[in-house]
Amino acid sequence: MGFYGERILPRLVDVTCGSAKLRPIRSWACEGLTGHVVELGFGSGANVGVYPAAVTQVTAIEPSDAAWAMAADRLATAKIPIQRGGLDGARIPFADNTFDAALSTFTLCTVPDLPTALGEVRRVVKPGGAVHFLEHGLAPDENVRRWQHRLDPIEQRVAGGCHLTRDIAAELTRAGLVIIQSKQFYGARPKSFGALTVGVAQV
């Protein structure tokens, strides 16, 4: 990844995706989570403190050592056990049907092999388990989409492979997950970067 990807980018992500303005939306995305949760792209732990009381444990899948180190202060305040359980969402090192639910916030846009990663989620989450997501991606409006397609190559280069043009709900559906609820809206400006989707899918 190089110095930028290993040291600078995790801090930029922490500032942009970990802002206080997003905390209510993160809390909304986590509503209804229960039991042992596998969290893809744990990052610097921005969801710590918004997990519902019904969550008993979180296993974090996080490739960045720098991001995990940045999470230390948040982890120290956690009221539930949180452990780092893997580095790669495409190879989750747990047995089938291990987890009660999964959570992904601002992660699916960046996963290099998204179909494989979502297949892994289906494998390790128990049948009927919920997959909660909060992601940015392809906008609902065509004029915004045009700008996203123009900016996407630049975004991928400067933001660690992040895609502006992934249709998150469609990707989940293609992976065999069933969308139970989903809402798309603009959470920030410019709209090209602020098209958000929050929802729940079922394994």
Automatic annotation (TrEMBL):
One of its GO terms (molecular function) is S-adenosylmethionine-dependent methyltransferase activity. GO terms for biological process: methylation. Keywords: Methyltransferase, Transferase. InterPro entries: Methyltransf_11 (IPR013216), SAM-dependent_MTases_sf (IPR029063), Thiol_S-MT (IPR052356). Residues 39-132 form the Methyltransferase type domain. It holds the Pfam family Methyltransf_11. Gene3D superfamilies: Vaccinia Virus protein VP39 (3.40.50.150). PANTHER family: METHYLTRANSFERASE LIKE 7A, METHYLTRANSFERASE LIKE 7B. This is Methyltransferase domain-containing protein. It comes from Branchiibius hedensis. The lineage of its organism: Bacteria, Bacillati, Actinomycetota, Actinomycetes, Micrococcales.
